[in-house]
Amino acid sequence: MNRRAQACVMILFGGAILRATMTDLYLRYVKEGLRPFLIAASLVLIAAAVMTLWYELRPAFTSNGPDATTADRPDETAAETAASDHGHAHHEPRVAWLLILPVAGLLMVVPPALGSYAANQAGTALTSTEEYEYPPLPTGDPAKTSLFGYAARALFDKGESIGHRRVQLTGFITPGPDGQPILARMILSCCAADSRPVKLGMTGDIPTGLENDTWVQVVGRYTDHRARDPINDEEIPYIEVESWREVAAPTDPYE
User: Fold this and answer.
1) Residue 129's domain is classified under what CATH number?
2) 143 Cβ neighbours under 8 A, 6+ residues apart
3) According to the UniProt record, where is the region Disordered (predicted)?
4) Pairing outcome for strands 167-175 and 181-187
5) Domain check: are 188 and 90 in the same one?
6) Measured between alpha carbons, how far is residue 216 from residues 10, 145, 184, 195 in Å?
7) Where is average pLDDT lowest: 42-51, 128-137, 195-204?
8) Same domain? 73 vs 125
9) From residue 130, how far is each of 125, 156, 208, 240 by CA, in Å?
10) What is the Cα–Cα distance from 146 to 252, expressed in whole angstroms?
């Protein structure tokens, strides 16, 4: 792979990243707040590739005669020319062409968001070693809040900041410790590689007959019921479900 081919691969890679950020595809990989950085990185890659192509394709400087500084050193000039020719004849290993594979994957493949399989491989993200804040719930009935927000209030605030209010949560179905379906959602610190699941058990009108990874919206109230996550032995809070309905997967599947 010569420099021209490398530049073409850089353009494809930068274009693939830019295309992903112009749609919702980038949300499969990173948090929404990183979008400006992805756009900047893709533009830098494209600019660097264009400059490389310009350098490689610009008209070669030609001279009618030997340079005055090298006219009296024909042996050295010949040696430098031979070395230059040898350098241009050198080729990088063919394995470098494998760099096209991730570019092709980014352009042609839309990966699914992490779901029940990933949630069952990791312990719940809520641990007693971290500190949490409990701002007032949004207005309205039911109060629309995140799965993480409700779970933290239910587990460490003992539901005091929830009170008797109804809450509306959205997540996907995954098997719980006792085999019953629970509600879950993946949270990101930076990107999908560091994702962790928030798990929430359900009592009352539990959604049944649904396949794993089915997204549902539940409305319910706080309950002090608890369970233990067998993976990291942390507590899993519950919600008493009053009603639920199946919904489409959200544009941003992570919290």
Assistant:
1) 2.40.50
2) 137, 165, 166, 167, 168
3) 66-88
4) antiparallel
5) no
6) 41, 14, 10, 20
7) 128-137
8) no
9) 10, 10, 33, 25
10) 12
CA 61 to each of CA 12, 57, 70, 164, 179: distance values in angstroms, whole numbers, following the listed order: 30, 12, 16, 81, 74
What are the backbone angles phi and psi of residue 73, rounded to the nearest 5°?
Answer: -135, 65
pLDDT for the residue 182: 94
More confident residue, 83 or 102: 102
Q: What is the pLDDT of residues 37-70, one digit of tens each?
A: 989 998 998 898 888 888 877 765 444 545 544 4
Residue 255 lies in a domain: no
Q: pLDDT at position 221, please?
A: 96
Q: Which two tokens stand for residue 218?
A: 């539940």
14 and 89 both lie in a single domain: yes
Q: Is the peptide bond before 181 cis (omega within 30 degrees of 0)?
A: no
Q: In whole angstroms, what is the distance from residue 189 CA to residue 181 CA?
A: 26
Q: How many CB atoms lie within 10 A of CB 171?
A: 25
Output the pLDDT for position 179: 82
Supply the range of the domain harboring residue 56. Answer: 3-108
DSSP string, 168-201: EEEEEEEE-TTSSEEEEEEE-SSBGGG-EEEEEE
Whether 254 maps to a domain, the answer reads: no
197 has a pLDDT exceeding 50:
yes
